[in-house]
């Protein structure tokens, strides 16, 4: 593979590509050859970062349930082996577990690799990397892919996989999470602290089924009604994505039909989650951030919660007026919110939670790691405490104003230099809004407009997509009828941009 082919695999701070044929006009570009090169390049990058000889390094490799996972995992392992690295194959794992493999006393890896494409379709796959500082940054991925071009993939293909060690990482990780629940409830595993609770889990046939079988059930929780726990990379039931409508409807139905206290749903590699309350109401997007913040608030008074840019003014009200915390509405991208969280905590400003509306949530108390299973642990502990006291999880967010009307509209940019064109659109959009007298608050991403008048109430956010030639427009109306008014305002502000397709507004 040429360097240009390898560099096309970069997706922010991850590597993503097409691993299987099967979808029209989508052809394989993340191959075993590419993974052997990438594995070898990561070995060299990690040796430089840790100032160790390559032969001193121990690296763990894991994967999610994707069909292409085993072959790509083996190829990454061969790339590492060919450089002299000690390789430990962890088989089925989760993205957060692979980071924790660097922390756990039983493993203490120098670095780790996870083969996953998160919630993307069955034909996709990718690679995530960790070292002791957490997930790698954008520039690290670029450096690894550039170095990968010089790695001899054919030589790596001869590496003897029998030299790899094997380790059941999920067993250790599950024990870690069970201990976190017991600690949170001041109990022991023998006491079965979750007895009397019923929680259903939907793993979407990804890697998250262990949460029901290895964490909840051993602690006494009834998991009857849980579904799609068996790993199956063809994803036969629904996409393993908490933001997917069909997936959320599936866990809502399972929760209500089972008369469960709580429903939990994970994405494929378990770095994201969402929940369903006993009455079937979904706890997603703004609500999941509000619930986690409410759980944390007593332990972190006057602290700051960091979110991505598309969170609602409703959430700001809840965080600041109800919980008496501070809300920093930052940028899209889970690495962006996590890095901001690290920066502010290092500067002495306590930020216990950085969370995207997608369900990526990182806790100060958990290595700044976006771990869907750990968020679920916090929720389970809160549920057990609430039920013991005759309360409910719902009561924690009952003062979060309800969503009334919302819309997301995605405009394709036809200009070849889409980034420059998008910036010019944002600049003019802001100028026009200010000339109209609209409220344009300081914002970290895109242009946000606030409307608090009698005629219309709500907000508008126009921004650039992180990677694609697209400008998403998010709108939320506070009352029935406000959405249509805000759409009209947005349409007027966007008139005349010939290289921006705003036809979806009509």
From TrEMBL:
CDD domains: PMM_PGM
Boundaries of every Alpha-D-phosphohexomutase alpha/beta/alpha domain copy: 10-148, 173-279, 285-399
Keywords: Phosphoprotein
GO molecular function: phosphomannomutase activity
Cofactor dependency: Mg(2+)
UniProt GO BP: carbohydrate metabolic process
Superkingdom, natural source: Bacteria
Transmembrane segments: none
Keyword match ATP-binding: no
A Pfam entry, by short name: PGM_PMM_III
Keyword Phosphoprotein: yes
Family membership noted in the UniProt record: Belongs to the phosphohexose mutase family.
Protein name in the entry: Phosphomannomutase
